[in-house]
Every structure is written in structure tokens, then in C-alpha cells.
Amino acid sequence: MIISTTDSVPGYTYEILGIAFGNTVRAKHIGKDIAAGLKTIVGGELQEYTEMLSDARQEAMNRLINDAQRLGADAVLNIRFTTSQTMAGAAELLAYGTAVRLIQSD
């Protein structure tokens, strides 16, 4: 599966199959929240949140790829990420893009 932030793949045209989505909703863990709160006093990277967001991005990408495969795609173009707060202490991370079937150019 080709995943790209660009709107094309060199050497190919494509048939648009639809929009592929992948999302995950994550909540803060109270222990990690306390550790991160203490870290804000001394400064530095909030590693607990960095790891949580990295895991969330990977899960959203995996779900995006699964959705694209369900549509019969072999590539997803123009992928983007967005986040939104779903409730206090929880947020959604959404990956989306255009699912396409690639056609070799002559």
C-alpha cells in the first residue's frame, strides 16, 4: 500500500475509490498525567504524551490502511491527520486520505 501526502504517484494515473479513514480515541492515564504535570515544572519533553500520540498515529494509520484495502485501493493519496477533543481528558486522532487504484501510465 502506497501512502502519500502528495496528490499523485509518478508514473501512474489513478481511479478514485473514495475517502479512507482511520481513527482512534485516547484518554490520558492518571499516572502519566501526574508525571507529565511534574515535568512541566522543570521543563523538557513530555515523553509520556509523545509516546501516547505516536501510538495513536500508528493505530490511526493502520486503520486507514485497512479501510483503503476494504475499498480495493492500492494507494492512499493526500493523507492528513487531525485531532479533536471528544470529552475532557480524551481526544480523537483521525487519519484520512483519498483511496485510489493505481493505473500504470504508458
Q: Could you describe the largest sheet, including whether it forms a barrel? A: 4 strands, mixed
Give helix % range: 25-40%
Number of helices: 2
Instruction: Return the CATH topology.
Output: Translation Initiation Factor IF3
> Structural class given helices, strands, pairing?
alpha+beta
Classify the beta-strand content into a percent band: 35-45%
What overall geometry do the principal axes of the alpha carbons give? elongated
- The second-level CATH architecture is 2-Layer Sandwich
Number of domains: 1
Overview of this protein structure:
The structure is a single chain. The chain is elongated and about 60 Å long. The chain is built from 2 helices and 4 strands. The chain is α+β, with helices and mostly antiparallel strands and 106 residues long. It has helices at residues 30-42, 47-70; strands at 2-3, 12-27, 75-87, 90-104. It has a 4-stranded mixed beta sheet. The chain has one domain: 2-Layer Sandwich (Translation Initiation Factor IF3).
Write a concise keyword list for the protein shown above:
about 110 residues, alpha+beta, Translation Initiation Factor IF3, 4-stranded mixed sheet, elongated
Describe this structure in a few short sentences.
It is built from two helices and four strands. The chain is of the alpha+beta class and 106 residues long.
Please write out the topology.
Blueprint: E1 2-3, E2 12-27, H1 30-42, H2 47-70, E3 75-87, E4 90-104
